[in-house]
Amino acid sequence: xxxxxxxxxxxxxxxxxxxxxDRILAFVNDLMxxxxxxxxxxxxxxxxxxxxxxxxxxxxxxxxxxxxxxLIVGAVFxxxxxxxxxxxxxAIETIVGFLPAGVNRARQILVDVxxxxxxxxxxxxxxxxxxxxxxxxxxxxxxxxPLLAHDDRHGAAIHPDPAPGHG
Length: 167
Description:
Layout: H1 7-10, H2 20-57, H3 63-85, H4 93-96, H5 101-136
Helix pairs in contact: 2-3
């Protein structure tokens, strides 16, 4: 068995954009995959730079950990819709060939429903945490210390020191 995605699992013949909404989603997914790829490459450069600078020049690069995490996590979530659309997620390829077409279709629908439930919960919780970060003026605990939400009370999205009484 070849490793990688095959037409049985990905359903490549079915994913051609048909209507305007499909074409728009395909364009957005393609854009997100390219941005995610660039973010992963940038994270690789940041981490490589950090290792070289720390080892050879003995300079601290404490900012690189948070930057790399933001880039990698952002890349994973930005590209997840495109991966799901192509059914490129981790799946059990061994059973796909053995399952009858109807059972395999039911399996795919269950995976889609599970993915939708996860995304809905994650989106809801993300908005709740964003609101909390905005209202309570939360900052990252790192030495970089960016705001964890945009804050118009201080006139900038990221500022070095919060106004008195806000931090």
